[in-house]
Specification:
Elements lengths: L2 H10 L8 H7 L11 E4 L4 H4 L3 H11 L5 E7 L2 E6 L1 H15 L13 E5 L14 H16 L3 E5 L7 H13 L2 H6 L1 H15 L5 H14 L3 H25 L16 H10 L3 E4 L2 E4 L9 E4 L7 H16 L4 E4 L5 H14 L7 E4 L4 E3 L2 E2 L10 H19 L6 H18 L7 E3 L1 H4 L7 H18 L17 H20 L3 H20 L9 H22 L8
Parallel strand pairs: 4-5, 4-9, 9-10, 11-13
Antiparallel strand pairs: 1-3, 2-3, 6-7, 7-8, 11-12
Helix pairs in contact: 5-19, 5-21, 7-9, 7-10, 10-11, 12-13, 13-14, 15-16, 18-20, 18-21, 19-20, 19-21, 20-21
Length: about 575
């Protein structure tokens, strides 16, 4: 039932068309505390109509409202506070959750529309560091939220596998590397060569010229350079996929920059045909004055292409291949201006999906306040962080539950889940300073706290034994359960909002609210008491277990049944 519609009708029944149904509905508020009711209508909007003080209007309207379908309706100052019938409400909510299970909150708003998501995008021959965590887990969670809202996401790991950095790497490998070391430990040795190049070129700037010449050979298809590039790409992907497997993240395509290298001419030709390319100091640019943006540089004066040239080719390919409802780019906030330019250029080109191109920016992740940088050698390897988190989770599980039979598996789910949740609980545009120990706490606003709350619910259900939820009475009379029941009711709205805002933190914060409400209920209520409310209480516990598990799933976090 739409309880806001019910309250709207109750208010309209005592008015004489002073406000429309839509006006009343939109003005309804959720009080700050449950003690003030479940929904409230502010009488300020009627002050000019009735020429009375709002608190007097509220009191007079309450006296006329039919309260038979509510627990009570009362005037508090200028507000009319509605207290819903808890038994009816809880019965409806718990029935919905238990009947729908993991599908609770599913909707078809997206109508099956394709949504390519440009995410993760590490650079070949460099390690996946903590700096890559955010794009990966934010993109993965958004994809799951899109599915819940009826879309068809296409996760595209747009690899950084082309560009002058490969000239630098090939030069570095030839000067200081060897095949045996790369085979033994590919990524760590390749990045060591790359860092050494940048250390050496400060004293020997001629190295940059050598790197540019080497990359030119690669572009021209020189056999040796192409062989090394393919080798570096292969060993890099093998390393990346081990980390993605730990994170539980998969992709639908790995088309990187190299894939689009021979597809740029079409975009350039469209720009020429539309008269959009103009010369500026020998370079070719698109004027974006009408968007209040600087000109977009498309081709350098020597004819060389840039990121935007390849991204135009990528957009054309995705548009033609997927006919997308939206195009999402999960890329750091520092690229916001660039994506404004890219979207403007695509709009000028008349690309059908350009209007629904969305840059999904996110803040920096720092460690002890320092920005991470491969070039300077200041790298925190994501693989090592995940292993450390798993080890720390294992220690805590050993201390809390030494007899747990599948400790290794649970430690992995808790450790990795803690890293993912620790990122996603923050609004994505916020910067994060990472502290491993804070993420692994079993109390507070952490992933393990939500996981433990789910495990607690499962433990109660296990102790209860076989339960016939279908025939159980679900009309809860216990006031201490009300906060949990109302939180369960919110879940479908949170799913819609998180999708609209591309904001996984809304799901994470919701899961924390539900977990806290449930744990508060658990602390103040004896659940496994054999009385006429036992079925209702266990229905609540089961509903909490279902929704917490699905909330964590939408974040890409596992929900162990025992911890």
């Amino acid at each position: 039932m739409d309880y806001k519609a019910q309250v709207t009708n109750s208010i309209l029944s005592v008015l004489n068309d002073e406000l429309s149904s839509a006006e009343v509905y939109e003005k309804l508020e959720q009080p700050k505390t449950l003690a003030m009711g479940d929904l409230a209508f502010p009488a300020f909007a009627l002050a000019k109509v009735f020429h009375k003080a709002p608190n007097q209007i509220a009191a007079e309207l309450v006296a006329k409202i039919d309260q038979t379908s509510y627990e009570k309706v009362e005037a508090k100052g200028a507000y009319i506070n509605f207290f819903l019938d808890k038994g009816q409400f809880s019965n409806e909510v718990l029935t919905d959750v238990l009947e729908q299970g993991a599908a609770y909150g599913q909707n078809d708003n997206g109508k099956g529309g394709n949504v390519p998501i440009d995410m993760s995008s590490p650079n070949i021959a460099k390690p996946i560091s903590m700096g890559h965590l955010r794009s990966t887990v934010i993109g993965n969670s958004i994809a799951k939220i899109l599915v819940k809202n009826g879309y068809h996401p296409i996760k595209d790991n747009h690899l950084g596998d082309w560009g002058t950095q490969f000239g630098k790497l090939i030069v570095a490998y030839k000067k200081w590397g060897n095949e045996a070391d790369v085979k033994k430990d590919p990524i760590n040795n390749l990045v060591k060569y790359y860092v050494k190049f940048h250390q050496e070129d400060k004293a020997h700037p001629e190295l940059d010229d050598e790197a540019r010449e080497t990359f030119k050979k690669l572009e021209e298809g020189n056999e040796e350079e192409v062989f090394l590039w393919k080798w570096f790409r292969k060993v890099s992907l093998e390393s990346f996929n081990k980390i993605y497997e730990k994170l539980g993240v998969t992709f639908d395509t790995y088309n990187g920059e190299a894939f689009y290298n021979d597809k740029m001419d079409e975009g350039i030709q469209i720009l020429k045909d539309k008269g959009l390319l103009v010369e500026s100091r020998g370079a070719q640019v698109v004027n974006l004055d009408k968007y209040n943006l600087n000109p977009a540089l498309i081709l350098k004066s020597d004819g060389a292409t840039l990121y935007i040239t390849r991204d135009i080719a990528t957009a054309i390919y995705r548009d033609r291949t997927y006919k997308p409802a939206m195009n999402l780019y999960v890329v750091g906030s520092e690229q916001t201006y660039y994506f404004q330019q890219l979207k403007a250029v695509l709009l000028e080109m008349g690309l059908p999906s350009a209007e629904n191109l969305h840059h999904i920016p996110f803040g920096l992740i720092t460690v002890n306040g320092k920005k991470l940088s491969t070039r300077s050698g200041r790298i925190i390897l994501l693989d090592k962080v995940l292993d450390d988190a798993i080890d720390l989770a294992k220690e805590q599980i050993e201390a809390k539950n030494p007899d747990l039979p599948n400790k290794e598996e649970v430690a992995k789910e808790v450790g990795v889940g803690a890293i993912i949740f620790g990122d996603l609980k923050n609004e994505r545009t916020n910067n994060i300073d990472f502290v491993l120990e804070d993420q692994l706490k079993f109390e507070g606003e952490t992933g393990p706290y939500v996981q433990y709350s789910h495990a607690r619910a499962e433990s109660i259900l296990k102790k209860a034994g076989s339960i016939d939820f279908h025939g159980a009475n679900k009309a809860l009379a216990d006031p201490s359960a009300w906060e949990t029941v109302t939180a369960l009711k919110e879940f479908p709205d949170v799913i819609v909002s998180a999708c609209k805002d591309f904001e996984p933190s809304e799901i994470a914060k919701y899961s924390l609210r539900l977990a806290k409400a449930f744990n508060k209920y658990y602390a103040h209520s004896k659940i496994l008491v054999d009385d006429d409310q036992l079925g209702a209480r266990l229905s609540l516990v089961k509903a909490v277990s279902i929704v917490l598990k699905e909330s964590l799933n939408l974040l890409g976090v596992k929900a162990p049944d025992a911890m």
